[in-house]
Design a protein that fits this description.
Blueprint: H1 10-15, H2 18-51, H3 59-88, H4 95-98, H5 109-123, H6 127-136, H7 138-143, H8 147-159
Helix pairs in contact: 2-3, 6-8
């Protein structure tokens, strides 16, 4: 199963508990079902329009655009709910005291991202060292959520890896 409802790396998925993984799977299945339903409705609308002799009108295109927007809104709602769930069910443990940067789970993911990025930008001048250090940071994988992939990709690009 392809998981595209959230942008997590394999390493991040490995840090999730079994319950969290089941929740991700459940939400992904709901998203897949929404997408399949949208495709089914588009085909049904196309046949209805063809049957009524207006198959070449812009009605189908307008319908598909509206339907895609509706589906994306529902998917965004599911994604936000999942991220909220993951945000407040992460294993905090003693790792908070081991992080060289501020670990505060009440902050938004964007604020966390800026804190972690500022730390790594200030700590490492060599792009490759910075990238490798972030990859080894188990706390950041959990703490940053989807934003970890963004920071990892940025540092990977800067390092030329």
């Amino acid at each position: 199963m392809v998981i595209d409802v959230i942008a997590f790396t394999d390493e991040q998925f490995a840090t999730l508990s079994e319950e969290q993984i089941l929740e991700v799977k459940s939400v992904q299945l709901k998203v897949n079902k929404l997408r399949q339903e949208a495709d089914r409705l588009a085909v049904k609308m196309k046949f209805t329009l063809l049957k009524n002799g207006v198959g070449r009108s812009s009605a189908l295109e307008e319908y598909e655009i509206r339907e895609r927007e509706r589906i994306e809104q529902e998917i965004d709602t599911l994604r936000e709910g999942l991220l909220f769930y993951l945000r407040f069910t992460v294993k905090h443990g003693s790792t908070e005291n081991e992080a060289p940067y501020t670990v505060d789970y009440s902050l938004t993911y964007q604020q966390r991202y800026l804190i972690v990025k500022a730390y790594y930008d200030g700590q490492y001048t060599d792009a490759r060292e910075r990238y490798n250090a972030l990859r080894e940071d188990e706390i950041a994988k959990v703490y940053l959520g989807e934003m970890y992939l963004d920071l990892s990709d940025l540092y990977k690009f800067q390092a030329g890896v």
